[in-house]
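[job 4471] stage=fold_predict status=RUNNING
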Amino acid sequence: MDAQALSLNNIIEQVNPTVLAMLSEKGKNIFFPKLGILAQAAQAKGKQINATIGEAVEDDGTSMHLPEFDSMVNIPTANVFPYAPSFGRPDIRDFWKKSIYKKNPSLGNTVISNPIVTNALTHGLSMAGYLFVNPGDTVLVSNHYWENYNLIFENAYEAKVDSFELFTETGFNVPAYEKALCNTTSDKIITLLNFPNNPAGYTPLVEEITGIVAAIKKAADMGKKVIVLIDDAYFGLVYEEGVYTESIFAELANLSENVLAIKLDGPTKEDYVWGFRVGFLTYGIKGGTAELFEALENKTAGAVRGNISNCSNLSQSLLLKAYTSPSYEASKKQKYAILKSRCNVLRKEINKAEYQAYFKALPFNSGYFMCVEPKKGIQAEDVRKLLLEKYSTGVIVLGTVIRLAFSAVPESALPQLVENMYLACKELDK
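[job 4471] inference complete, writing structure tokens
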């Protein structure tokens, strides 16, 4: 093992040995290199002649670039063409950390890490897998989950994705989640929570969050090492009263010395910039210190460097420019209002009495999606195919449920979407 990795491991062990035990073998071995090319390049910065950096530079010291780009991007050259740090740009990391506290007032003065910039949330999940998932480990998710979890954790890291029943008749199935956490024989638990949920479009109610946190605390009090991956891709898009509006990270970041909360979020869905590919990975654990978090940040940045080197400088710059615009908050509220209105219209349509004989809606209150379950005897895949062939309507089938992305449908077309689904189900009900 490299001496730099050993040094980081020693720091982590001194603060919290449980966190060291949570790391995968890859996680224990990874480090951000500070003794090689990067260190030597940093030492040469500002020198009259600098022949260290792997970028092309004009004679005047600015980044070499094609002039065709000048009319496209109204941002200083230094914020567009050079490499960004593997940790992410310091200014956007600082901004995002402050925004986490602002959006999650329950955090109070809880010490958390500085966010590491990832190539959006998918990459953040993959980096979390790199650091904490060993072959043969189990990752516990709900039975309604994003299929990319399988590619990330099973195909890439040779873990097993296991699930618990997400819903009771009315909401989050706290007893099923507690049983899945506490009945495992392993002393290391990796669980992934995704609110608002993709595909179901559900965020737990305030009282349900209390039950979820209590279940995690119970497992931790049993001596289990609990790693909670928090997929906050759709954070903030909550449309009903009584629903928990913060990230569950706020409840877990200071819960127990046996619970490591890893917040994975970003502007992709929150700020409608799907192609920018910027995300953030942030740590929280009770008793966490600046030294502990710095060590974890170094390991995470090392994993990023060894995986994609760094994330887009241009995307980070564009985001910061938007965030500091006086009109940003108003624009964001306007887009939120559109999605909320669509959700409300879809709810009204989907619950009409004439449709209940053919499908039922799973609980939903947030995000981009909701799911319907066709009545017994009607196959979801048959409905999907008929909708394509006869009704010029596209939906997604996940097992036995049909996912409707109201985020992608004009409000005026939502009644027709539900009517088409009704007609397809009726035709197949033979």
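[job 4471] summary: The domain at 328-428 is CATH 3.90.1150.10 (Aspartate Aminotransferase, domain 1).
[job 4471] exit 0
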